[in-house]
Amino acid sequence: MRQYAVRRAFTVVPVLLGVSILVFGFIHLIPGDPALTMLGERATPQKVAEVRQRLGLDKPIYQQYLIYLGRVVRGDLGISIVRGDPVARDLLRRFPATVELATSAILLALALGVPIGIVSAVWRNSMIDSASRVWALVGVSMPIFWLGVMLAWVFGVQLGWLPTGFRLDSATDFRPWSNFVILDALLQRNWEAFGDAARHLVLPAVALATIPLAVIARMTRASMLEVLSRDYIRTAEAKGLPQVAVILRHALRNALLPVMTVVGLQIGRLLAGAILTETIFSWPGIGLWVYEAIESRDYAIVQGASLFIAVIFVTVNLVTDLLYAVADPRIKYD
Amino acid sequence: MRLTRVMLVVAVALLLGGAGPALAQTFVWGNQGEPVQLDPAVITDGISARITHQIYDTLVKYKGSTTEIEPGLAEKWEASADATVWTLSLRKNVKFHDGEPLDAKAVVWNMERWWKSNHPQHENQVKAGQTFEYWEGQFEGFDDKSIVSKIEAVDTHTVRVTLKRPQAPFLANLGIFAFGIASPKAVEKAGTEYGKSPVGTGAFKFVEWKPNQEVVLEANPDYWGAKPKVKRVVVRNIKDNSQRLAALKAGEIHAMEGLNPDDVKVVKADQNLQLILRPTNTTGYIAFNYKVKELQDKRVRQAFAHAVNKKAIVEAFYGGTGLVAKEFQPPSLWGYNKDLKEYDYSPEKARDLLKQAGFPNGLTEITWEDGKKEPFVFWYMSRSRPYFPAPKEIAEAMAADLAKVGIKGQLQTAEWAVYLDKRKNGQLPVYMLGWTGDNGDPDNFLCYFFCSPGASREAFYSNKPLADLLQRASTLTSQSERARLYRQAEQMLHDDVGRLFIANNQPPIALSKKVKGFVANPTGNEYFNTITLQ
Q1: What's the pTM?
Q2: For A220-251, b where at least 16 C-beta lie within 10 A, e where not — what string?
Q3: Chain A residue closest to B247 (CA)?
Q4: Which tens digit of pLDDT belongs to each residue from B363-377?
Q5: How many angstroms away from the CA of A311 is the closest CA of chain B?
């Protein structure tokens, strides 16, 4: 087991190296001189040359990459081209907002998806099952930006129940310690701020949770169905155990293993989905930040954030794999 | 079961409690993105300028909804007979937000910071990767390159600026947001971080910048001019156009710009909202590359002018915010020529002119100066800009108009940076582009492009008499005399069809009905001290 963990952990290195090359390469493949794009139609040639030099764009590309890699290894993700601020610092400052959003979304997806999956499996082909199947199909194929805009229009504009964006009202008097606003409000026992932050979280979290919710519900259903047909379930039923006990204690525990993997994968997807969701709801996390950076061609930010997201993605997958091995002792790794 | 119900009630209470944000006395502007910096001297983007404009004053200002000059921090001014020495008298008893006095010394300090590359706070900024682009652009560079040769404090409240030669738009330049006067002490204290804690003399003081969210300002009770009528200003960063409108409709913000063209109707139909069109300061045009032999023939250019149905284009693609352009300057500028007579839309005349020019069967091929022949290609922009909100659709309409008279070509585009690159290198025979004014001075439109004949800045157009006239206009100080020359220049440009001007756009601003006193200005920057909330 330990050997497997070590070996599995080592596979991360080439993956990340590959990602760094891709991230670096992609941006340089975009047509157009980045300096000119940044400066716009009024740029003088001297100015363009100046900016190219400042960005190191005058060096051969492999040199640019090596310089870049050397800095990254030391934790320096560069300086934002537009703002001049260190990318790593801003990344850490904005990350909590994204974590808060993504965590709420995944919890919401689990809290609803697992029960829906169980119910669908137990009452297979019932009304509930059909409804959840339709919902899953719709949920998976619904574009987040469309859903987000609709949610904001219905619940924000038409009904006026919830704010259409941001984490807090400007009028709310609150100084967060970290950037985890909900957590800080709880810790400071500032209930007004907590309520305000919670209200702001609802729509983006719902928008972001839709796809994982559908996926988790389907996965739980399929996995439950498989488990429910096993002999030990029949044995349990034959013993005369109440159905609830059979389902929750015997079936669910085993059925949740594959769901765990799916959740791991979904976390990675959530970060990508966060770019759209954050843009739509003006949520000040890394998604919105990256979106703005792409628009203004702030290379350093796009590179830094992409690499960071890749690291998170790879780490989450690693942890999921390891947890899986721990949770299911039947699986042998060698 | 009971527990669930209690939790449900709590949750609903949390969600609904406190709905409807307390906005009274706080004016909230929905901005299109995150500001770059709040030091106006080093920024060039409208998003940041929107905020710095509230914090700083410039020496002169643009009056109301025009680009006429009115006193700002300078109460009055005087130019020497040869228009090279400008004496500016500063307003007395003005203080920066940090309590420092505004005097001649402070103004000279600011100007030297912009101008001299060895000024410590200039050097500092350059090291951090920033430059003073507006100074470079408007005052022809730094140090010895600049048109400015001396800046001095004559006494506590008088500043004298000496120029190497006359510069007609000198005052208009000083009114640009970039030349907001900052507290020297605050800049020195903060160094390169100054852009995060700005200190000016403006109607609003900086309070806080929450990254990626909003910038908070509060009213400056000691403001020398019209005192603000709201207590606070919050400038919120809402990137997405639809979302910004949703926030406006939900009452979370009071005003915004950057409406999707289709949403103009939505705003007009909403009883709680009002729509203001900002006086236009932008012109979209078709440029002719004069390295193409066919285009050197004026009759061919005239054919273009008669072939394109501008009115139909403006009606179809500008969502009710566009104007037909007949000259380069937009109508909001004081050099605009009201009397200029537009080319009428007439495919027959166009065909006729082409025939006269020797193309009875139309024009499908072009010849470059070096003799190389190519199929005719009409280039359009891949990116929406204020002057061409829907470039592809507009290009298609124009191409259809041109095809009708026999000018048939491929439509082609390129990614924005590539497009600009190709244009700069003179690789585009006929293409769409536009211009947005910087300082409300006609010089900024006309001289920028046409003062140096045959220059590569745009399409190698060469018109010596026009260039001479514009250069003369740029050395005068009498506005009425200059206006006369610019009107004449527009006529010359028109007669020669140096370019074909298509449309002016008036950017729409959507506001809550509660907002009164918002005065839209062509420069794109408004002061919030005139605003009241009802």
Answers
A1: 0.82
A2: bbbbbbebbeeeebeebeeeeeeeeebbeebb
A3: A164
A4: 999 999 999 999 999
A5: 23
